[in-house]
Please model this.
Amino acid sequence: MLVERTSPKKKAKELAKYLRGERPDYDYLKSVFRQRRNQLEVEVSRTPKKLPYVPMENELKSYCEKVWNLKNFPDMLIIKTLLYTGIRVSELINIKRIDIDFQQCQIRVNQGKGKKDRIVPFPFPLKRH
Model:
């Protein structure tokens, strides 16, 4: 026997009306729904993680040759910075001039992944660019 379900939008409105007086935050709601899942014995479906693509040695050599021979200086500097430091693109675009310490060969990454700050070293040859 199938029971007709309430639409998710309508159910969300009902819950919002019920909880509005408590002014819940995200952590509270997360905890409430975790408890509800446990009580109803609802399994959380997880998608399996795929392994990243690892390029072959000849592909890496070809890529490096192209990067090192670039005539477009700004593009070359961006690519070399990403390769030499391992920082994320989203972190690189937020770097300001004051975040780079050329004396110590370090870059300060502010509010990186997980909203954490960190210092990333870069090799001396990158300093010359």
Q: What stands out?
A: The mean pLDDT is 86. The first strand starts at residue 100 and ends at 101. Residues 51 and 57 are 18 Å apart (CA to CA). The chain has two domains: 8-40, 57-127.
